TrEMBL record:
This is Ribokinase. The gene is rbsK. The lineage of its organism: Bacteria, Bacillati, Bacillota, Clostridia, Christensenellales. CDD domains: ribokinase. Homodimer. Signal peptide: none annotated.
Amino acid sequence: KVLNFGSLNVDYVYDVPHFVCAGETIASSGRGIYSGGKGLNQSVAAARAGLPVYHAGSVGPDGGILVDTLRQNGVNTDFIKLQDAPSGHTVIQVDPNGQNCIIVFGGTNRMIGKDHIDGVFGGCACGDILLLQNEVNNGAYIIQKAHETGMTVMLNPSPFDEEIRNLPLDLVDYFVLNEIEGAGIAGTEDPEKILETIFSRYPSAQILLTLGMLGSVYYDGNCVYRQAAFPVEAVDTTGAGDTFLGYFTYGIVKGLEPQEILRLASRASAITVTRKGAAGSIPNLEEVLRETF
Ligand code: ADP
């Protein structure tokens, strides 16, 4: 079982002729409202891969769409606390070239109390693996609690900021990083050096580094495995990393061979990038296994 203590965002997406400038008011020609947040996307990915997923987090009265999306994907939402404050949300401008520009408001994602965390970890043996990103507050306490409970801790330090260094990273069993997060943690941009640096600091951790179109690298504590990205026509790379992480987690829980895990996760995220959107574009396991590229 997987416990994802993660962010839940309502994404408000506006089509604009160009990004709004200082002092300017522009009209939007279309608006979409979507469920998002790295936490939600990763729960959906792990659930579509076929894992039993519990999502812990917090929403406000405007967060019904988020809970509904998780439930529709078979994710358990018993540990999502309703608070009297706005849910995490983003305001996204999309221009005619498909470029975007985003404001994120943490809202209830940043209001996770220690009593809530104690309840999640104390009330039940709700997971074997904890997934955590960097969009909820009290991350250090969450990692500590998961470790005390004997869970495997998988950290995706995304989006990267300096606060990551204050987390008890020595308690992390799996680092899942893209190049930016890897460079942030290791202080170097070279993928080999990122692996070496993280390994030298946290020798018992396993490391998955995703490199966009250049594929992925996984150090499982013994060997380094590499996987090229599948050549597809990318339409929207949003959610690629979240899909990879969900399927990687599936492979770990199911005890698949490392190379097989990378192949499966790459195939799944290649499908995601061929579709527009985030959570909605994540394929399920059947689709991934049917894909022949
Ligand atoms: P993130 O979304 O966190 O930045 P990456 O960009 O590293 O993560 O992408 C994660 C994985 O998704 C890559 O390792 C690769 O397997 C796959 N992927 C990303 N972009 C593409 C692409 N343009 N074509 C095919 N696969 C891709």
